[in-house]
């Protein structure tokens, strides 16, 4: 951003974790832009305390009234995670989009604060190589088209861990002891998942160390007896675990406990980033993996074939929209409306067996079930005339027979 443009910015809302990178960004904003900084820290269930970010911000000169720390766990699961799971969304067939789905909520809350405090700009700590810069900024612009965006990693010269630490020491920014050495990987966490990327994981041939994982035991060390769990759905959303009604965030937290204890939800993936490169990421999504299996199971009973197959056709497109940052796009909203309409009858209970890394369906039932034993039984029945299949098959074979008769086999 040019010097003149920098002078136009009087107040900026910074997405602030309290860690080394965003603490350096905070001081850099004060020094480079000479502007007032408002910090925003989101509790999305990432684990650990978020309150220390308040003390860190105050230490760096931020006024108490300019420090926002928000518990967004319920909103995150209810309004972002659950709608995504209604779609059975998987990016490139396997990734449950744990990082991707958190970004639009952070962007939304930042813009809310911009309006509340009369700020001119927003700032994030995403690098110029990754997807998150796109996700944050598409969200900002969709919600406030005239917002100014500051992306320090695209502006400054602090392009190494050593330079960041030198800058922090020069400006008396506290540095955690474990930050002085080279971190073995970078992480991002919320209530849905935790990701590990970079450095020690950059060679896709090298298996990650077992001590890296924080949310699950290894499948080999999981219990030798299976755990059974029942999940109740109402209109496509889970509402209870083992008959106990839970809020969205508490329900996902409970499934995380069950999944993690049974070694469920690990994924090692080489994915295609939106900016064009491939990257290797390792993920733990224990509760989300359970929920994905259970939701498909209840849909198998309650969704008409045409609706189910249409959803499956649209799912890759929907998942890609989330991955690439288009949560607030008209096409995602249109797809969501269609998906949500299909969920009106998706209610019932699914019983899952959790055992050594696998979540398998052990039973499902629904008052809206389209499964009819009197039609599918191998025993004698009075509702289905098997002779009807002959004409059905001949009509479907007609074009194939005509092609063969024309000699185009």
Task: Set down the secondary structure blueprint.
Elements lengths: L2 H6 L2 E5 L4 H13 L3 E8 L8 H8 L7 E5 L1 H14 L16 H15 L3 E3 L8 H12 L4 E3 L10 H10 L15 E4 L4 E4 L29 E8 L2 E5 L2 E2 L2 H14 L4 E7 L5 E7 L1 H17 L2 H19 L6 H13 L5 E8 L2 E8 L7 H4 L11 H18 L4
Parallel strand pairs: 1-2, 1-4, 2-3, 4-5
Antiparallel strand pairs: 6-7, 7-12, 8-9, 8-13, 9-10, 11-12, 13-14
Rg estimate, integer Å: 25 Å
Largest sheet features: 5 strands, parallel
| Number of separate strands | 14
Shape: elongated
The CATH superfamily name of the largest domain is Argininosuccinate synthetase, chain A, domain 2
CATH fold category name of the largest domain: Argininosuccinate synthetase, chain A, domain 2
Broad structural category: alpha/beta
- Poorly predicted segments: none
Identify the CATH class of the largest domain.
Answer: Alpha Beta
How far the N terminus sits from the C terminus, by CA atoms, comes to 65 Å
Average pLDDT level: 93
- Roughly how much helix do the residues carry, as a percent range? 25-40%
H/E series: HEHEHEHHEHEHEEEEEHEEHHHEEHH
Strand content: 15-25%
Could you write a compact summary of the structure shown?
By secondary structure, this protein is α/β, with parallel strands linked by helices. The protein has helices at residues 3-8, 20-32, 52-59, 73-86, 103-117, 132-143, 161-170, 248-261, 286-302, 305-323, 330-342, 373-376, 388-405; strands spanning 11-15, 36-43, 67-71, 121-123, 148-150, 186-189, 194-197, 227-234, 237-241, 244-245, 266-272, 278-284, 348-355, 358-365.
């Amino acid at each position: 951003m040019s010097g003149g443009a920098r002078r136009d910015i009087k107040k900026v809302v910074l997405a602030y974790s309290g860690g080394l990178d965003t603490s350096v960004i905070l001081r850099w904003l004060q020094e480079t832009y000479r502007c007032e900084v408002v910090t925003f820290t989101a509790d999305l269930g990432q684990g650990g305390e978020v309150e220390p970010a308040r003390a860190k911000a105050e230490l760096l000169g931020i006024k108490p009234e300019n420090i926002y720390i928000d518990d967004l766990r319920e909103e995150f699961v209810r309004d972002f995670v659950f709608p995504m799971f209604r779609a059975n969304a998987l990016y490139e067939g396997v990734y449950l989009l744990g990082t991707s789905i958190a970004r639009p909520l952070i962007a939304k809350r930042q813009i809310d604060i911009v309006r509340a405090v009369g700020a001119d700009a927003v700032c994030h700590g995403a690098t110029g190589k990754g997807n998150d810069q796109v996700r944050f900024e598409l969200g900002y612009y969709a919600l406030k088209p005239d917002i100014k965006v500051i992306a320090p990693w695209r502006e400054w010269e602090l392009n190494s861990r050593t330079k960041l630490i030198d800058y922090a020491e020069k400006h008396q920014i506290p540095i955690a002891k474990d930050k002085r050495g080279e971190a073995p990987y970078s992480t991002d966490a919320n209530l849905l998942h935790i990701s590990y990327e970079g450095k020690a994981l950059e060679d896709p041939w090298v298996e990650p160390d077992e001590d890296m994982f924080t949310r699950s035991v290894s499948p080999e060390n999981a219990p030798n007896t299976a755990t059974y769990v029942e999940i109740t759905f109402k209109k496509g959303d889970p509402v209870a675990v083992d008959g106990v009604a839970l809020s969205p965030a508490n329900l996902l937290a409970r499934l995380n406990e069950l999944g993690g204890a049974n070694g469920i939800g690990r994924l090692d993936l080489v994915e295609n980033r939106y900016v064009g490169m491939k990257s290797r990421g390792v993920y733990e999504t224990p509760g989300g993996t359970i929920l994905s299996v259970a939701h498909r199971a209840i849909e198998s009973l309650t969704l008409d074939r045409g609706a189910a197959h249409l959803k499956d056709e649209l799912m890759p497109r929907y998942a890609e929209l989330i991955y690439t940052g288009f949560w607030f796009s008209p096409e995602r909203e249109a797809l969501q409306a269609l998906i949500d309409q299909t969920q009106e009858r998706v209610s019932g209970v699914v019983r899952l067996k959790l055992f050594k890394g696998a979540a398998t369906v052990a039973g499902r039932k629904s008052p809206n079930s389209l499964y009819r034993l009197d039609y599918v039984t191998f025993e004698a029945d009075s509702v289905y005339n098997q002779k009807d299949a002959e004409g059905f098959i001949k009509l479907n074979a007609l074009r194939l027979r005509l092609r063969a008769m024309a000699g185009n086999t």
